[in-house]
TrEMBL record, chain A:
Keyword Transport: yes
Stated name of the protein: Putative aldouronate transport system permease protein
Pfam families xrefs: BPD_transp_1
One GO term of the biological process aspect: transmembrane transport
TrEMBL record, chain B:
Ranges of residues in domain ABC transmembrane type-1: 79-296
Coiled-coil features, chain-numbered ranges: none
Organism: Anaerosporobacter mobilis DSM 15930
Topology in membrane: Multi-pass membrane protein
Segments passing through the bilayer: 20-46, 83-107, 119-138, 158-177, 215-237, 282-300
Main location: membrane
Keyword Cell membrane appears in the UniProt entry: yes
Name listed for the protein in its UniProt record: Putative aldouronate transport system permease protein
């Protein structure tokens, strides 16, 4: 141990000029890239606090002359549609994540049990769906014509509910569970479902967190299925509401409920940014706490899909 | 005879392990309804779809839908765009991911390392709709950030949203911006996996940092790189719909240089309710995508059987 340390310090002394320049380049490149990653967020946030007059006259700025809460005040005064989008997004996130986790953890558990004879067959049955799909049109016809889910909130939940990839991630996570654990639990008289609840679930908590995070993120960022299936404005999820908002030159129709507002008084440009801040805010606030689950999931998932 | 026995054994197994089957059932039912049932529906690409008659009641037109798309040049254009964008995405993003992963793993200050890694991963967590908002924030004509700088310095406003060529760069930029953190972590996991003994030996031999990167880290990352590249090539006909659609939307001025297969499929359905051409392009993508994946998997199996998908 001591020898290694001296070797290390030796090499530190030896660390010549070229090594130091190399390190400097490393720090510099990473710092620049990290700033590049943060910059759009910073611009979005400062833009949301600008006065409408300054935006119209001089454009969005990183350092506005005047700070103003008018965009947020406007959104608070006309909260109906924003709140209903929040409600839709929170509902699909909670319901979708819970149901998806339940279905996929059970599937992962069954496919993980080596005494389940047909697990290879069912694994392939699930895997094949990632290789070939009917495509958008048959899926669309299925949802609209046969399942009658046009303008129904379940059309936002069902598409991302179960994914082959997550089931396999779950199964790979749990590969380390020894079979003896199941066997001894069976000896003690526990049925398969009881073993799933009492033995599998506690051990699977980290992987449940990871897959739960994937699911929740997908639902929170959902806009695609809404654009296909949802017509009624009160059923828009948050991101779709935001997309409509940004693409509109006049946003009062989206925020107010019929009563006429003086269109000129609407701080349109800053409200667009404020809506984006409110739609992204919860993710950024939770990010420091959840990212480690994400990183661990990535590392396991990358070993083999 | 054999299949009959097979079914018999299957039935017996179900009776014995019915709880396990029941627990797997929801997932299986899900895939049957949402994947397997829609597969025969791809037949819609060969009919003149009439909503009143349904997919299988509509008139069969053979390859007419495909012919139409080939003749008007759409299929060639979107295939070319999709391939070009994906090749640029693959090459550029992997180069940057590898470079950053190596740099970050060389850095010894824990705090700097942790914070910068979190920051670089952050874009992965937001939706592409927000990326579209960023683009609007930067590039819109009347009050975009870039135009306000241009005007400030006495320049002319630049109309990004009616200039197709700039979007090639903007799309690539945001692709890199959004996906680098994810790929970087995958590569960092590879670097962490390299045995520290190899590095220690190189210390003793007096190798410089640069030599270590060149002679140890890079060669040992090569297998991961090749695999990720190959799988990336397998998906070269798909992808990034979210990115393209949220940046370009329905701005037809920009289509020529930004239209890809997925945006075409989506727009044909949602914009013009042209079920037939949407389905034809979708099937074309699915079939060639499948062939590509099978081919790539065959190659992977040759060079590294353990990493093959099946």
């Amino acid at each position: 141990m001591k020898k290694k340390q001296s070797e290390q310090s030796n090499s530190n002394i030896k660390m010549g000029k070229s090594n130091r320049t190399l390190m400097l380049i490393c720090y510099l490149c990473i710092a620049v890239f990290a700033i590049l990653c943060l910059f759009p967020f910073a611009l979005m946030i400062t833009s949301s606090f600008m006065t409408e007059r300054e935006i119209v006259a001089e454009g969005y700025k990183l350092f506005p002359k005047n700070w103003s809460l008018s965009a947020y005040r406007y959104l608070l005064d006309n909260p109906t549609k924003l709140l209903s989008s929040y409600r839709v997004t929170i509902t699909i996130t909670v319901v979708g994540t819970a149901i998806g986790l339940f279905i996929m953890s059970m599937a992962g558990y069954v496919l993980n049990r080596k005494d389940f004879k047909y697990r290879n067959f069912f694994s392939f049955f699930i895997y094949f769906t990632t290789l070939f799909s009917g495509g958008l049109v048959p899926t669309y016809i299925l949802y609209v014509r046969y399942l009658n889910l046009k303008d129904n909130i379940w059309a936002l939940i069902l598409p991302g509910l179960v994914s082959a990839w997550s089931i396999f991630l779950m199964r790979n996570f749990m590969k380390s569970i020894p079979d003896e654990l199941y066997e001894s639990a069976t000896m003690d008289g526990a049925g398969p479902f009881k073993i799933y609840i009492r033995v599998f679930m506690p051990l699977a908590l980290p992987s449940l967190a990871t897959i739960g995070l994937f699911l929740a993120l997908g639902y929170w960022n959902e806009w695609y299925n809404a654009s296909l299936y949802i017509d009624t404005a009160t059923k828009y999820p948050l991101q779709y509401f935001l997309q409509k908002m940004v693409n509109q030159t006049s946003i009062d129709s989206l925020t107010s409920l019929g009563h006429v507002i003086d269109a000129a008084s609407v701080p349109t440009q800053s409200v667009k940014m404020a809506t984006a801040v409110l739609a992204t805010g919860p993710i950024i606030l939770l990010y420091p706490f959840v990212q480690r689950f994400f990183v661990s999931g990535l590392t396991v998932g990358s070993v083999k899909g | 005879m054999k299949t009959k026995q097979g079914f018999h054994a299957f039935g017996k197994e179900i009776r014995r392990n019915w709880v396990l089957f029941l627990m797997l059932l929801p997932a299986i039912v899900y895939f049957i309804i949402f994947s397997y049932v829609t597969m025969p529906g791809a037949y819609v690409a060969f009919v003149n779809y009439n909503p009143n008659k349904g997919i299988f009641g509509s008139d069969f037109v053979g390859f007419k839908n495909f012919e139409f798309l080939i003749k008007n040049g759409d299929l060639l254009r979107i295939t070319k765009n999709t391939l070009l964008y994906n090749v640029v995405f693959l090459v550029l993003s992997h180069t940057i991911q590898i470079a950053l992963a190596i740099m970050l793993s060389e850095i010894t200050r824990k705090r700097f390392k942790k914070v910068s890694q979190s920051v670089i991963l952050l874009p992965h967590f937001i939706s592409y709709v927000v990326v579209g908002v960023f683009a609007y924030n930067f590039f819109n004509f009347d009050n975009g950030f870039i135009n306000s700088i241009l005007v400030n310095f006495g320049g002319e406003r630049f109309s990004f949203y009616s200039t197709p060529w700039v979007w090639k760069f903007i799309i690539v930029f945001f692709y890199i911006w959004k996906t680098t953190g994810y790929g970087m972590i995958v590569y960092m996991a590879t670097i962490t996996g390299i045995s520290s003994e190899i590095y220690e030996a190189s210390y003793i031999d007096g190798a410089s940092r640069f030599q270590r990167i060149k002679l140890i880290t890079l060669p040992l990352m090569k297998p991961t790189f090749i695999l990720l590249m190959l799988f990336g090539l397998g998906g070269i006909l798909r992808g990034s719909f979210d990115l393209f659609y949220n940046l370009i939307g329905t701005n037809s001025i920009l289509y020529h240089s930004t239209d890809v297969i997925d945006t075409y499929v989506y727009r044909s359905l949602v914009g013009s309710f042209n079920f037939s051409s949407s389905a034809a392009v979708g099937l074309y993508q699915s079939v060639f995508g499948l062939i590509l994946v099978l081919g790539i998997n065959w190659i992977v199996r040759k060079i590294e059987p353990d990493s093959a998908l099946f």
